[in-house]
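Lab notebook, bench 4. Still working through the backlog of constructs that have no structural model yet. Next entry is a single chain of 227 residues. Request: give me the structure tokens for it.
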Amino acid sequence: MPDAERPRVLVVDDEAAIRDYLSLGLQYEGFDVHPAADAGQARAAASAWRPHAAVLDVMMPGEDGFALARALRAADAHLVIIFLTAKDAVDDRVAGIELGADDYLLKPFAFAELVARLRRHLRRQAPALSEILRWGELALDPAGHRAELAGRPLDLTAREFDLLHCLLQHPGQVLSKGTLLDRVWGYDFYGDDNVVEVYVRYLREKLGDGDRRIIQTVRGVGYRLGG
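Model written out:
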């Protein structure tokens, strides 16, 4: 994959709300996305568009995700395939793995986790996706799950790491609490959005950002990394 090429992701789900949510979210994260409501649309898109990855719902009317994955894998042995399903049966997970799926996420899932897994699998084909994210003296390695400030390693929880990752992907851009909640906690999170304030405070403490120079608050709007 050329360095300047955005990874192409085929999103297949018969539920329009989930399909739209994933499409918009992945586009926001820098992917080119083609949504499909069923296996027929997905096959046509895969043939004409040549995606690098496919995010497939397992339970769909007509041809299910397993059958679709078998066809897509036969056409492209290098395609990254991630299954989404509400079914937690071990047999289903085994079936997906035996079909050659790269990953398997249970609904509801955290959107940030889907993005992280997509990037991890795509790195095998696209080394450019593993580049270090930097802002000033702050650096984050998504592949190695490491972050540091002025060469000093940061001891971050998984949620703190995901929040910092999201901010580093959009330096200077104001991200609302709702956006951060969706990207880091996932569409299924039903808690208070004040959790974002709590984790921003945790991050500021670990970054020594008492003057809020690194993570800035835009009152009534949200947060941004730098100015």
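Notes after review: The chain has eight helices and twelve strands. The mean pLDDT is 85. Flag for follow-up if needed.
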